[in-house]
Write a structure and sequence with these properties.
Oligomer: single chain
Shape: elongated
CATH topology of the largest domain: Rossmann fold
Number of domains: 2
Largest sheet: 6 strands, parallel
Number of strands: 17
Radius of gyration: 22 Å
Number of helices: 14
Distance between the termini: 9 Å
Strand order of the largest sheet: 3-4-2-1-5-6
Helix content: 25-40%
Structural class: alpha/beta
CATH superfamily of the largest domain: Phosphoglycerate kinase, N-terminal domain
Length: 401
């Protein structure tokens, strides 16, 4: 599969699908610029060749509506500063005005088009919408790993209209690191940590994880359906509604042993910080995870769980982590997740290979100022989960055809 190093972009327009769907705070400021920062080298390569850049991205979920709060215009000052060029902006991402803006670009210039999701066709894998966007470039580049698991027009349709297409440096780095994780000389013991609240999005990858994991730590909202299935009382702890298929998968997973017939491959929290309501300043107490009183809900790892998980992490040589281990958005219930983040960073400094993905996981590392100690931070949460199912992402397949 070709990457940007395989092309000379002199006098060419590069249409780059990036993912600038970055988190912003209440003041409208970018709170985590990781995705943008990782895309800068690709843009700079085109500019250094003497080419022109047209950037396309989505932001939030406007659901096909032109909503000012979801405009990408707020990125212009930030991008201009990072790229050290005056980045241009065009409000419609398709149409005659956008075409004129692209045609007027000079070598070394950058144009950012408005939010793709202002058009419902983007999320419908619409051929006509993809064709309209394809008019804006000579070479198509996918540098948006984090949305490459989606069948969207800018990911799977646009590449059909290009003979010259490739992946960017961000995408290449993601693929190389996952290849290294799956097929490289990863050292044992291997520990996988799964958190988050939605079991439906992760349960189907667990059997694949069992193939190579020595320890599988399951926390956050992911743990409660398992504990309940094992007969524990989880009180009012949040559990996603799931169907009969997931119910049977839960049962199947719990009945599985290690491929080498070694039991105790799954590890769940021992205790939790339980709260009497779902709010940051709720009344709390420590409870065994299998005995949470009715009216109370587990919102974070308890002290024994933190020590228990950290002891396993301490003896690991390879670590994969996706998802927070508590209600991380509440500061009073983020301690467990931050402790795990710090421990992963500590063992990485001692020679462990660590691969971390998911916004909250990366945010926890940044809160502890240890994100630079991790071997690799993946920009994708959902895309990371799809790769863990050992699937080829649609966005990668579209380039590789």
């Amino acid at each position: 599969m070709k990457n940007v190093n395989d092309f000379n972009f002199a006098d060419k327009v590069a249409l780059i699908r990036v993912d600038f769907n970055v988190p912003i705070n209440q003041n409208g400021e970018i709170s985590d610029e990781t995705r943008i920062q990782y895309s800068i080298p690709t843009i700079q390569k085109i500019l250094s060749d003497g080419g022109k850049v047209v950037l396309i991205s989505h932001f939030g979920r406007p659901k096909g509506n032109n909503i000012s709060n979801y405009s990408l215009k707020f990125l212009i000052p930030f991008l201009s500063k990072k790229l050290k060029v005056s980045v241009k902006f065009c409000e419609p991402c398709i149409g005659e005005k956008a075409k004129r803006e692209v045609d007027q670009l000079k070598n070394g210039e950058v144009l950012l088009l408005e939010n793709l999701r202002f058009y419902k066709e983007e999320e419908e894998e619409n051929e006509k919408f993809g064709w309209e966007l394809s008019k804006f470039g000579d070479i198509y580049i996918n540098d948006a790993f984090s949305v490459s698991h989606r069948f969207h027009s800018s990911i799977t349709v646009i590449p059909k209209f290009f003979k010259r297409k490739c992946i960017g440096f961000l995408m290449k780095k993601e693929i190389d690191n996952f290849d290294n994780f799956f097929y490289g000389k990863r050292k044992k013991p291997i520990t996988t940590i799964l958190g988050g609240s939605k079991i439906s999005s992760k349960i189907n990858i667990i059997k694949n994880l069992l193939i190579f994991s020595d320890y599988l730590l399951i926390g956050g909202g992911m743990a409660y359906p398992f504990i309940k299935k094992k007969g524990g009382n989880i009180g009012n702890s949040m559990t996603e509604k799931y169907n009969e298929k997931i119910e049977k998968t839960l049962e199947s997973i719990l009945s599985m042993n290690h491929p080498k017939k070694q039991p105790n491959m799954f590890f769940f929290p021992k205790d939790v910080i339980a709260a009497d309501s779902f709010q940051n300043h709720a009344k709390t107490k420590i409870c065994p995870i299998h005995n949470i009183p009715n009216g109370w809900r587990g919102l974070d790892l308890g002290p024994h769980s933190i020590k228990y998980f950290c002891n396993i992490i301490e003896k690991s040589k390879t670590i994969l982590w996706n998802g927070p281990l508590g209600v991380f958005e509440f500061s009073n219930f983020s301690f467990g997740t931050k402790c795990i983040a710090k421990k992963i960073a500590d063992v990485t400094k001692k020679g462990c290979f660590s691969l971390v993905g998911g916004g909250d996981s990366i945010a926890a590392l940044k809160m502890e100022k240890c994100e630079k100690d991790i071997s690799y931070l993946s920009t994708g949460g959902g895309a990371m989960l799809e790769i863990l199912k050992k699937k080829t992402l649609p966005g990668i397949k579209a380039i590789d055809i």
